[in-house]
Amino acid sequence: MRPPEFWNYREGRNGAPFIRTFLKPFSWLYARAVAKRISETQSYDPKIPVICVGNATMGGTGKTPVAIYLLKSFRRLGVNAVGLTRGYGGQLKGPIVVSDKHSAGDVGDEPLLLARHAPIWVSEARDEGARAAKSHGADMIIMDDGHQNPQVEKTLSFLVVDAEIGFGNGCVFPAGPLRENLKASLSRADAVILMKPEPAYEINDDLAEDLKGQIVIPAYLAPKDPAPKGKLFAFAGIGRPNKFFDALRRHGGELVEGISFADHYKYKDGDIENLFMLASEYGAGLITTEKDYVRLPAGYCQGVTPWPVSVVFEDELTLRRLLHPIVQRTTPK
Q1: Domain tally for the chain?
Q2: What gap in Å lies between CA 17 and CA 8, rounded to an integer?
Q3: CA atoms of 57 and 109, how far apart (whole Å)
Q4: Residues 149 and 256 in one domain
Q5: DSSP letter (8 states) at residue 8
Q6: Which pTM was predicted?
Q7: How far is Cα 314 from Cα 295, in angstroms, rounded to an integer?
Q8: Do β-strands 285-288 and 231-236 pair in parallel, antiparallel, or remain unpaired?
Q9: Are residues 280 and 180 in the same domain?
Q10: Of residues 262, 292, 289, 259, the one with CA closest to residue 276
Q11: 271-324 per-position pLDDT tens digit
Q12: Range of the domain at 270
């Protein structure tokens, strides 16, 4: 789904106060159901460290690059770190290890990106996935998403927050973007990774107030390569496509147009053919995110440029302090 614009505003007409008021009772029911599930579920303890990279809101915040960073960091230390994810958008329920035979239609887009760096288990039931990972020799598990999933006991929980929109209007779905009561969500987080659009970005007062008392680690996404030369026609089906378009412009890309699709959108042949046609009218090349690229129909990848990014932590010392006990526990002696 594409998040409604009023989710981003706490006050004024843009915040659609009438609609928000109408939806509030449904939000209370949703929040209560989430809280009940979390409090009543018996978590499975796999007896190995589990680091959860989650978020408090619907949509993308930059969780997957953080999960990739952690997987790569631990594996460089000789730790058999593996990923665990639900595999949103895929048809396979798991538990199953992602292989090069799988498509985004099988396991979702994020597992395909994660699997470039480590073994990745996809499992709709996270506890079953954790059991499978442990039985196959995993030393530790990195969960991509799952902050509101109580099925697996977590050793460390990171909450990734988009610095530009923060927690939106502060309301729980469907009146707002929150997956649960904000206070409850923050109380289970060991640290907040604050994902900024660029290093110099300053957060607003509302978000600063929301994060008061939390351990906050500022970070941002940096492109692995410069923006391609020439005219660019961009498209994206992620949580906030404009983040991708703005990043291209910020890094010198000559963007002539940007087309938005719903998050995790499953592209059809006709969609890509239309995009090629529109781009040709501008004399521009097609460019998209890595997540979108892996969802392109077979045979349409040629002629589309993916623009990969990676996470950069501004306060790596705090991150390493939080990870140190797990490093000591898992690093081969």
Answers
A1: 2
A2: 12
A3: 19
A4: no
A5: G
A6: 0.93
A7: 31
A8: parallel
A9: no
A10: 259
A11: 999 999 999 999 999 999 999 999 999 888 888 999 999 999 999 999 999 999
A12: 225-307
